[in-house]
Structures are given as structure tokens and as C-alpha cells.
Design goal:
The protein has 132 residues and is α/β, with parallel strands linked by helices. Helix content is 46%, strand content 22%. The strands form 2 sheets. The protein has a 3-stranded parallel β-sheet, sandwiched between helices. Strands 1-2 form a two-stranded antiparallel sheet. Helix 2 (19-30) packs antiparallel against helix 3 (49-65), helix 2 (19-30) crosses helix 4 (82-93) and helix 3 packs across helix 4. The relative contact order is 0.13.
Amino acid sequence: MGRMALAEQFSEGRLFISPPQRFLSTAERRGAAAAYYVREDKGWTPTSWSTYRDEVRQAARALVALGVKPGDAIAVFGYNKPEWVIMDLAAMMIGASVAGIYFTSSARDAAYILNHAQCAILLAEKHTSPSV
């Protein structure tokens, strides 16, 4: 939804629903339905909306335990995987924001992002080499 569409919602008196609120509402409504799939050796494995919700809540609790506060920024360094979105939603749930760093980013670019966003923590994906 673009900025103009959001502005129209506000001008028409409709209430804005934050992404975390919308996520929790969808998880409640969809429950056991598949929220996302992960490709594994045996094929595509679904994860339910309920499990997805629990993953996001657990990540949010972990961020709070690590001392992340509303207004803080965290960084995510990894491939396009469910963990990326889980951490993004978890950060939003506690009032923090996320700065993404791609594996293709140079060390200089990554350092710039971390410093510029003043990231409180960095979630880094464990990279494993494929079996030969």
C-alpha cells in the first residue's frame, strides 16, 4: 500500500493497523494453515501461522533479554530466509527497527550500515559450506 493510500485511510477516519498487529491478527485467524515453506532435502516443509507467531514472539523476548529497547536498531546479516522476517517482525513488536545487511555486502558497506544505524545488536546467519 502506497503513501497516498495510507493518507486516504487516515483522512477517511480509518484506523491504521501496525504490521505486528496485522501479523498477530492473521496468525490468530489462520492458525494451522501454512504461513511459509522452507525447502529441505525431502521437499518443501510448511510452517503454520501459529508456529510462525510463536517464533516471532520468542525472538522478541530474546531481543528484550539482550537489552534491545524501543527506538533501538538491530542489524540482520543473512540470506533471504524465514529468520530474517521473524527478526524483523520481532523488532517491530518491541518498537525497534531493522537494518539489513546482505551477504554480498562488502565489509566496508556492512560497517557503514552498522555504524550509521547505530545497531544495538547484529543477528548473523551461520554460514555452512556445502558438502562435497
